[in-house]
Known about the structure:
alpha/beta; eight-stranded parallel beta barrel; 9 helices; 8 strands
Amino acid sequence: xxxxxxxxxxxxxxxxxxxxxxxxxxxxxxxxxxxxxxxxxxxxxxxxxxxxxxxxxxxxxxxxxxxxxxxxxxxxxxxxxxxxxxxxxxxxxxxxxxxxxxxxxxxxxxxxxxxxxxxxxxxxxxxxxxxxxxxxxxxxxxxxxxxxxxxxxxxxxxxxxxxxxxxxxxxxxxxxxxxxxxxxxxxxxxxxxxxxxxxxxxxxxxxxxxxxx
Length: 213
C-alpha cells in the first residue's frame, strides 16, 4: 500500500510572475506528487503564459504538472496530464486529446457511479470531494469519508481527496485510504507562508499513516 501523497492546486487567480517564488518555496519544502494549474475565467493566452512560467519550475523538481480543464493545451505544451470535471471536456475526448502517455484525472464529486465510469473510460485517477467546506470553489457537494474506504478497498485506481482539507482535519481521509490529498488554501493561504503549509500537511499525513498501521 503506497503512502498518501500531497497534490497541490494553484489558487484560481494568480499572476504567474509573482506566484513563481511562492511555488518554488512550496515545492522545496518537502515531497509533493503533483501541481495542478487551475485558472478560472482567464483567456487561453493567460493560461499559456502561466504554463510557460510555472511548468519548468515544477517539472525541474520531478513533480507532475497537471493542467485543469484543458487536455488540448496539456498535450500541446508537454504537461504531464490534465484534470477534468463534470462541466469540462468529456472523458473520452480528454483521453483522445492526451493520448495514452499523459495522466488523466477526473472529478467525481460524491458519485460512485461517475467514478466507476471514469475508470472504465480511461481515467488514471479519480477525485472525490468536497469533504469539508471550502472557499476555493463553489460547491454544494459534501462527500462522505466512507467513499474513500469503499473505493480503496474495491479499486486499484488511485483516489484523490479534495475540498477544504487542512493539516487539522486530514487524518480521517488518510486513514480511509486516500492516495493523494489535494490542497489549496492550507498551503497558499497559510499565515506563515506556503513552505510552512506544506510542512504541516506532510507532518499530518505521516502521523495519520503511522496511526493507520
